[in-house]
Amino acid sequence: LPLAIAIIGGEPARFAPLAALYREAGRRAGVAKDALLVGINGHGFLADTAEAAVEAFFTPYAEVMSRIGKERGWPPLARAQFDLGRGPRGHLMVGTPDEAIAKILAQYEVFGHHRYGMQMQVGLQPQEAILRSIELLGTVVKPAVNQALAKRKVPA
Fold it and tell me: Where are the domains positioned within the chain?
């Protein structure tokens, strides 16, 4: 079965041992390397500017994560924590398409994953902003990531 890693906090690179363990277990079981698919899932939101993405995403996301945190014993989500998560090594894919492209490609270097799934709606974002985020992911981010990864492949 493919592996899906949901990264909702911390540095994604810290989850790399899970992918390595999965691939090692598959190798030991005799599963072909190309059948050991890894997907990365995370929270994200895209807009034409980073400021617009943050404005549409932060407040609803903070409300949901703080509520979940209360149930699970986590402290409320602080803006500084959110901003760290948006950084180059953070788990949040919130910003511009170019920022998302860079982060997905950086995560590919760590995981060699075959799929990235972005959960955009965490709380109540404006519908127009969600639709724009979906549009940017499908028309800008995905083609750019696919093109960059195709250039890295060595012809057989």
Answer: 3-152
CA distance 45 to 137: 9
At 25, which amino acid appears?
A
pLDDT in tens, 15-68: 999 999 999 999 999 999 999 999 999 999 999 999 999 999 999 999 999 999
Fold entry, domain 3-152: TIM Barrel (3.20.20)
- Using CA atoms, how far residue 68 sits from 15, 73, 91, 123, in Å, is 21, 8, 17, 12
Residue 43 near residue 122 (C-beta atoms within 8 A): yes
> Which range (5-14, 33-42, 123-132, 147-156) has the least confidence?
147-156
In sequence order, the 6+-apart residues with CB closer than 8 A to the CB of 40 are: 4, 5, 7, 12, 107, 111, 113, 115, 116, 117
Q: Is the full-model pTM beyond 0.85?
A: yes
